[in-house]
Amino acid sequence: MGQNLFIQNALSPPILFFFLGAIAYALKSDFEIPAPLPKLFSLYLLLAIGFRGGIELQKSGFGYPVLPTVIAAIFMSLLIPLICFLVLRLKFDVFNAAAISAAYGSISAVTFITAESFLESQNIPFDGFMVAALALMESPAIIIGLLLVKFGASKDRPIKRKMKWGSILHESMLNGSVYLLLGSLLIGFLTSAIDPSDIKKMEPFTGELFYGAECFFLLDMGIVAAQRLARLNKTGAFLVMFSIFMPIVNAILGSVVARFLNLDPGNALLFVVLCASASYLAVPTAMRMTVPEARPSYYISTTLGLTFPFNIIIGIPVYMGLVNTMIPSIG
Question: pTM for this one?
Answer without folding.
Answer: 0.89
